[in-house]
Specification:
By secondary structure, the protein is α/β, with parallel strands linked by helices. It has eight helices and ten strands.
């Protein structure tokens, strides 16, 4: 279980996220939505212990994400721009992560390489952006980590790979009893994969509900329409914008 309790993160005088609290239960896929710059990436990197919170705490299975923890309690983050070792191949990155995550599964890794049709011996630097993201995802899903964080991970993927990723995330959460957070600015991408949806607006979490309860509260509306109502997405008057 992942617990984020009253977390605030600042960069100097700028507050990136403020007093954010949410819980992602075991076996749950949590969709985190917000406009660009809302604080989604900062929150995920704080959960992953890339950043230290200025206030609040993050708990993974009851232990601080920023204190002493076991490798099993270490989240895996698929960043918006994944990092790989210089001249790395998928197999080289396999060796890197297998040496740290004790629940690493070579069988899962081989299966995912075949599923994504990726050459494990090819240089990742020669892959397209979408293929590099696929490598990062399949590495994460091979670690066995109990917490998986994906930042805008649908970007650069074609339709078939996006559908495949959604199915894999749901299956991984169930098989590993894991907590998965998937951030996006596109609610259509989250609607059929997330169990819960949270929205960051003004650097705060403005709602946190199950997808089922949101549809009950806003009957007949898509999650995208709900997001626009709750956030700063109302239709604007464009008269007078262009002034030549």
């Amino acid at each position: 279980m992942l617990q984020i309790e009253n977390v605030t993160k600042k960069y100097g005088s700028f507050t990136a996220i403020e007093n954010v609290s949410l819980t992602v239960g075991d076996g749950c896929v949590y969709g985190l939505v917000g406009y660009n710059g809302a604080g989604k990436t900062t929150l995920l990197k704080t959960v992953a212990a890339v950043f230290l919170p200025d206030e609040g705490q993050v708990l993974v299975d009851g232990s601080s994400a920023h204190g002493r923890r076991t490798p099993q309690q270490t989240p895996f983050i698929v960043a918006d721009e994944p990092y790989f070792l210089p001249q790395a191949t998928p197999l080289k990155m396999r060796d890197y992560y297998a040496g740290y995550y004790p629940d690493w599964s070579d069988g899962t890794f081989r299966n995912l390489l075949a599923l994504f049709k990726l050459d494990g011996r090819a240089k990742i630097g020669g892959f397209s952006k979408g293929m590099q993201r696929q490598v990062a995802i399949l590495l994460g899903l091979s670690t066995g980590a109990r917490t998986i964080l994906l930042d805008e991970s649908f970007d650069g993927l074609d339709l078939s790979k996006r559908i495949l990723l959604k199915r894999l995330l749901r299956r991984y959460a169930q098989v590993r009893n894991a907590s998965v957070i998937l951030s996006s600015h596109n609610l259509r991408e989250l609607e059929d994969v997330a169990d819960r949806i949270g929205m960051i607006e003004g650097h705060r979490l403005v709602f946190d509900e199950t997808v089922a309860s949101l549809h009950e509260q806003y009957p007949g509306k898509s999650l995208e329409e709900i997001f626009l109502e709750e956030g700063d997405g109302a239709e604007r008057n464009l008269d007078g914008i262009f002034v030549w």
